[in-house]
Amino acid sequence: MLEFLPEEFSAVLKNFDLKNVDELRLRVGKPSFALINGKFLPVGVTVTQAALRKTITALTEHSLYRYEENLKNCYLVGSCGERVGICGERVVGGDVGSVKNVSSLCIRLPREVKNCAYKTCETVFKNAIKNLLVISAPGAGKTTFLRDTARILSDNYYKNVLLIDEKGELSGKSFDVGKRTDVMKFSGKSFGLKFGVTNMRPDVIVLDELTEEVETKAIISAVYSGVNVVASAHGASLENVKKRSLFAGVFAEKIFDFAVVLSDMPKVGTVKEVVSL
User: Fold this and answer.
1) How does residue 96 score in pLDDT terms, banded at 50, 70 and 90?
2) What crossing angle do the helices spanning 213-224 and 189-200 adopt, rounded to 10°?
């Protein structure tokens, strides 16, 4: 975990139990902070431009071109599934986009919390596998919840699961996603839904963060093809998500049978409610 950080950070972080660290904030010329148990605490290192350049170089394995698509969208992903958001000066030329003079990084550490989705799965999949929408605000635990749902469907319900991991966060090298789970990594969600149904014959497809209409349309097509889907969306509540035009089609077609809403209170990953749709 965090193997891409420069030595000055790695040395200081040895004083912290990374199991309790949810996020790191690095800003040029300012103190660095770690989010621990809901509070940002100083790490003890002032961030330099050189340190951020070293971090980006390590994350891209000395090849910015190879990670151009990620950089266009201002993020990178570490080998263990760490999500690194990037701020700086955006450069756009033709169809090439990137970031220069990086000024800050937001590093979100992934978690494996086995059985965090167990009770919800018992409720939702009691009589049959259903289509489930996982809703939460950013950083409230939906990726961890999805990963555990994939594992439970695979190992407890004996289903062939296709995990579409567009950003490389769901299936980090240290995570258990289930014995019957196939992983399609760094694939666009709509592509994975279309070709995964045909080529991998899954019982269930699990995917994260629906953000485009082409993805919701692909989910409708997959469900009508006889495949169950577990997906996630950003939102503070079910009502909040229903108001977004992006989801008009899936709610009109009654694609999802259940929605689970997660909260970060009193702790990240708290199940706020499970709603039958």
Assistant:
1) very low
2) 20
User: What number of CA atoms fall less than 13 Å from residue 34's CA on the CB side?
Assistant: 21
Q: What are phi and psi of 144, to 5 degrees?
A: -60, -40
Token readout for 5 is: 């950080």
Burial class (CB in 10 A: 0-12, 13-18, 19+), 277: middle
Run of H or E residues at 99: strand 96-108
- The sheet that has 270-276: what strands, in order across it? 181-185, 161-165, 204-207, 228-234, 132-136, 258-263, 270-276
Helices (H) and strands (E) in the chain, counts: 9, 13
Where residue 81 falls among pLDDT bands split at 50, 70, 90?
Answer: confident
Residue 95: is its pLDDT beyond 80? no
Dist. CA 243–CA 173, nearest whole Å: 37
Q: What is the architecture of the domain spanning 7-108?
A: 2-Layer Sandwich (3.30)
Structure tokens at 79: 């080998």
CB contact at 8 A, 204 and 181 = no
> pTM of whole model > 0.90?
no
Stretch 21-48: mean pLDDT, rounded?
91
Cis bond upstream, residue 266 (ω within 30) = yes
- Find the mean pLDDT for residues 132-141: 94
Domain boundary assignment for the chain: 7-108, 118-276
The CATH number of 118-276 is which of 3.10.20.600, 3.40.50.11930, 3.40.50.300, 3.10.580.10? 3.40.50.300
**Quick one: which H or E segment has residue 97?**
strand 96-108
